[in-house]
Specification:
Layout: H1 64-86, H2 95-102, H3 110-116, E1 118-120, H4 142-147, E2 154-156, E3 161-162, H5 165-171, E4 176-179, E5 190-191, E6 211-214, E7 217-219, E8 226-228, E9 235-236, E10 241-242, H6 249-252, E11 255-259, E12 273-279, H7 282-287, H8 289-300, E13 311-317, E14 321-325, E15 334-338, E16 354-355, H9 360-373, H10 384-395, E17 400-406, H11 429-432, H12 438-448, E18 451-457, H13 465-468, H14 470-473, E19 479-481, H15 491-506, E20 510-519, E21 523-529, E22 533-536, E23 539-545, E24 551-557, E25 566-576, E26 582-594, H16 597-602, H17 606-623, H18 626-649, E27 657-659, H19 665-673, H20 686-698, H21 701-708, E28 711-714, E29 724-726, E30 729-731, E31 736-737, E32 750-753, E33 757-761, H22 773-787, E34 794-798, H23 805-810, H24 823-833
Helix pairs in contact: 8-9, 8-15, 10-12, 17-18, 17-19, 18-19
């Protein structure tokens, strides 16, 4: 229902203190000592005028070149606002007209001109680029572009930062960051130094965007404090030369990793510790997951991240809790049963968490025999809560990772739950939140002891994921969900479980981590999104950190950035590696500051904006209801159209006009509204809706966008035109198709890439491996897609009469569905509201 009047703009109707997204106040700036609290709040700022790179501090206002650049910038903006009087006498200027007017001016690259091109959505329908959308490139000098942080790691919703909050409000766009801090990197400069150079005032790590006033002094790019260059920093270990601090790797790379000293440790680095908590009730045995878990762990036991200190343990449960003595020297594992679930105790403190190397044979014996041990069980109850209490007691001395496998609703002891799913109330706000605070409290206790809890839910019935998910949300864990899991009846889910589990067991991991995000003076962070515990106003506690989780941050502009030409953001992740080394991974992003609305729109990142709004909408649906969240998303589109028309385009004719940079925004919002997390109706099961919400809060941008708006390709007419040539393999690059049924045909073969799941629509029952050119092209393209993602995707082959066809067509978001409008209908509704 989009007939509601658009609310007055205020974070799209979102209150500033939105819960449960962990709202934060402005970052406090009090003194801190790096030796005791290396991530303590920065001290009071000292005011310094910002200096552009290459301009001396003494002549910043007197340089003729600098004044001329200001003149050119002003001229550019004047021309933009004069365009409606001449070029726009016709309905829309073409690119040659805009380029002729603006292309001759420095600082106005052609990409920026294209981003500002007005697009009438009611007339232009072929909006998709031929290949998946790339992140917009900030309008920076070539030297700064070369060293800037990768958008796959650090991305801002606006690649041109508005000078004031008033300008940001006028743009009707959210300001925020999307961060993937621990992602797998092919190249990572690792720096070992006795001195980690940081600003004495705000504790920013030295980075490519600081200014060297001379060889002995550098100016912080966040607070502008002038700092001394330490003697050790004068030596460059890469070039083995002395006297060139600006060529050090820390100043040449926006992403670096430091080997931390003892100043960054509150205790000796912990070993890698893994505890597996396994549901062995009758329901679990029927589902059949245990056999495949044991096989996968056996196959990957040597690949578990760690070293000679790595420790493992196992705990199984039904109506009682079973511990396993794996002490070196035993001839076989010993089961110890604790039946008192109301007062859980640990039967042995020395032999339950064992050194993997020393007890490897006993661990293998247990994994080999475990599936058969419970194959005849008739125990239907599940004491998950007491099992988690036992896990907490086992892991508290060291910290580490707890992996929970659950197949049903917990029915006994602490944390027991009752079914809340009413088919008529599946989108009710009270059912989207937890039924008890037991799992949240347990997660917070775990976080305090550096224990992360990951959940694998393999359930054929309602299991109240809204309550269970809290164990991972607040302990920086991960959540995996396999609805209708059965090892024989649902082979697709089994295949996905096996692939996910292999990735999960072997991916890298960081322990006892904290992360802080700093930003240029004048900017402030007020809301975080993701799985973590907020330790202080800007410090996130991450008991575990993994390469597949991401975070989002909402920001505001507290003070004018008029004295700044650049804005910078820095994320610092302090963690213990699986080898027991304390490390600090630092990412720094630099963006230009602008004072014109047209520049803000030209630098808008439509995918980052969509992902941030998705996070905001999830929180809004939990606190205020699904309908309210959906209205806020529609209002975001209405606000953009209204603001652009009244402030920038000055178009006299009717139409739905947006800048080219945001041409896909209404389509993405419509796609969001059709996702399981946010769609209306009662057809979406409650656990599936909650899991979709959890994914929105933790998935990196690229995976999230493929969930929201999958990539659709036609495969049967692929050619080598524009193909990639990789290691003697030709990888075709077919063009993207709009997600509409009229783009399909019965005689074609189409691939829909949804990220973790790919639908392959074709008239045969499998993907043939033939010695034909087309077969080779298809397989090369599929292999290339798989190689570019962390989790291996499951491919569904959909024949034109298969039951999976309905799922495939649900992703055609431009078409009308049972409970949602088509893209053209959505645009018409927006037109009525603007």
């Amino acid at each position: 229902d989009m007939t509601n009047q658009a609310q007055p703009y205020g974070s799209y109707g979102y209150p500033a203190s939105m819960q449960p997204a962990y709202p934060q106040g402005p970052t406090s700036h009090t003194d801190s000592s790096p030796a005791h609290d290396p991530y303590g709040p920065p001290p009071s700022y000292q005011q310094f005028s910002q200096v552009r790179p290459g301009v001396c501090e003494t002549d910043v206002f007197s340089s003729p070149i600098h004044l001329f650049c200001i003149f050119l910038q002003m001229t550019k903006l004047l021309i933009i606002f004069y365009l409606p009087l001449n070029l726009w006498a016709s309905p829309f200027p073409n690119m040659s007209q805009l380029s002729a007017a603006l292309g001759g001016l420095s600082g106005v690259p052609e990409l920026e001109v294209e981003a500002l091109r007005p697009v009438n959505l009611l007339q232009e329908r072929n909006l998709l680029p031929p290949r998946p959308l790339e992140a917009p490139e900030p309008n920076l000098s070539p030297d700064l572009k070369k060293v800037n942080c990768s958008p796959q790691t650090f991305r801002c919703t606006l690649t041109s930062i508005p000078q004031t909050q008033a300008l940001l409000n006028k743009a009707r766009l959210p300001l925020g960051l999307l961060l993937h801090p621990f992602r797998d990197l092919q190249q990572l400069p690792v720096i070992t130094s006795n001195t980690i150079v940081r600003c004495r005032s705000c504790r920013t790590y030295i980075n490519p965007f600081v200014t060297f006033l001379d060889q002995r002094r550098w100016k912080c790019n966040l607070c502008y404090r002038v700092n001394d260059v330490p003697d050790e920093f004068m030596y460059n270990p890469v070039t083995r030369s002395y006297g060139e601090p600006h060529k050090r790797p820390e100043v040449q790379n926006a992403t670096v990793e430091f080997i931390a000293s003892s100043d960054y440790m509150l205790r000796p680095p912990q070993p890698s510790v893994y505890l597996f908590v396994l549901d062995v009730s009758h329901n679990a045995v029927e589902a059949g997951y245990l056999k495949y878990f044991c096989e996968s762990l056996l196959d990957n036991l040597d690949k578990l991240p760690g070293d000679t200190r790595t420790r493992v343990g196992f705990l199984t449960f039904d109506s009682t809790i079973h511990f396993y003595n794996l002490q070196e020297g035993l001839s076989q594992p010993q089961m110890l049963v604790v039946s008192d679930i109301d007062d859980v105790f640990i039967p042995s403190h020395d032999s339950l968490m064992v050194n993997l190397k020393e007890s490897a044979e006993l661990v293998k014996d247990l994994l080999t025999s475990l599936p058969a041990m419970f194959s005849q069980t008739r125990e239907t109850h599940s004491a998950l809560g007491p099992a988690l209490q036992a896990a907490f007691k086992l892991m508290s001395p060291t910290g580490g990772r707890v992996t929970v496998f659950q197949t049903q609703l917990p029915t006994l002891g602490a944390g027991m739950l009752k079914s809340r799913e009413d088919p008529n109330q599946r989108s009710s706000t009270k059912h989207l939140g937890p039924a008890t605070d037991f799992y949240k409290k347990l997660a917070l206790d775990c976080s305090g002891q550096q224990i992360g809890v990951d959940l694998f839910l393999l359930s054929s019935q309602y299991a109240d994921l809204a309550s269970l998910a809290c164990m991972s949300k607040y302990s920086a864990g991960s959540i995996f969900y396999y609805p209708s899991f059965h090892h024989t009846h649902n082979p697709t889910q089994l295949e996905k479980f096996q692939k996910d589990l292999e990735r999960y067991l072997t991916r890298k991991i960081g322990f006892e981590a904290v992360m802080r995000i700093r930003c240029t003076k004048g900017l402030s962070i007020h809301t975080f999104h993701g799985n973590f515990f907020v330790r202080s106003t800007d410090l996130l506690s991450l008991a575990n950190v993994n390469p597949d989780s991401a975070f989002a941050v909402q920001m505001s502009i507290e003070d004018s950035l008029a004295d700044s030409s650049l804005a910078c953001f820095q994320a610092a992740l302090l963690y213990t590696s699986n080898k027991g080394k304390r490390r600090i991974r630092v990412h720094t992003l630099c963006l230009p500051v602008v004072n014109q609305l047209s520049d803000v729109y030209a630098g808008a990142d439509v995918q980052a904006i969509t992902c941030l709004l998705a996070n905001m909408a999830i929180d809004r649906s939990i606190t205020s209801g699904l309908s309210d969240a959906r209205d806020a998303l529609v209002n975001a589109v209405v606000d953009l159209v209204s603001s652009y028309k009244s402030n920038v385009s000055n178009l006299q004719q009717s139409g739905l006009v947006v800048p080219a940079s945001m041409r896909l925004f209404p389509l993405y919002i419509l796609a969001l509204l059709k996702q399981k997390a946010l769609r209306t109706g009662t057809s979406t099961r409650l656990d599936e809706r909650v899991f979709a919400m959890c994914e929105f809060k933790t998935q990196p941008l690229q995976q999230l966008m493929q969930m929201v708006h999958p990539d659709l390709y036609r495969l049967d007419n692929m050619s080598d035109q524009g193909a990639l040539h990789l290691n003697d393999t030709v990888v075709p690059q077919p063009h993207l198709l709009h997600l509409a049924a009229d783009r399909l045909s019965r005689d074609g073969a189409f691939l829909m890439d949804c990220g973790n799941v790919s639908f392959f629509c074709i008239v045969v029952s499998h993907i043939p491996e033939l010695e034909t050119l087309l077969s080779e092209r298809v397989r090369a393209f599929l292999d290339w897609l798989q190689d570019n993602r962390a989790f291996s995707s499951t491919i569904h082959v959909v024949k034109d009469d298969a039951s999976a066809q309905a799922t495939f067509f649900q992703h055609l978001v431009e078409d009308r569905s049972e409970s949602a409008s088509s893209y053209s209908e959505f645009l018409q509704n927006v037109q009525l509201q603007k």
